[in-house]
Write a structure and sequence with these properties.
Layout: H1 3-26, H2 30-36, H3 41-53, H4 57-69, H5 79-83, H6 89-99
């Protein structure tokens, strides 16, 4: 890969990380709690993983916690019971760190 291509790739990486940082700031806290409960487990985990990999595990935990509060995924048996402990943000943060 040439120097120009490497420079362009690095520029894109910086731009993507900046965009994810902005997304984390805008879609944290109450948005995560209210929207997270509407997501499937797979959707919540995917979104949380993006925030975790971008260095924002606390935002990832907010999405997991918000999802757990209203989790009624029909594809998973007894989902609410399995995820009830994740409504606590400390438990959700541990899940983000250990499972995602």
């Amino acid at each position: 890969m040439g120097a120009m291509a490497e420079l362009e790739m690095r520029r894109r990486e910086v731009a993507v990380l900046g965009a994810v940082e902005e997304l984390a700031d805008v879609f944290a806290d109450m948005v995560a709690l209210h929207v997270g409960e509407k997501l499937t487990c797979h959707e919540a985990n995917a979104l949380a993983r993006v925030f975790k990999e971008a260095g924002r595990p606390e935002v990832a935990a907010q999405w997991i916690s918000g999802h757990a509060l209203g989790d009624e995924d029909p594809d998973v048996v007894e989902t609410a019971d399995e995820h009830a402990h994740l409504a606590d943000e400390d438990a959700a943060l541990n899940y983000v760190r250990d499972e995602l």
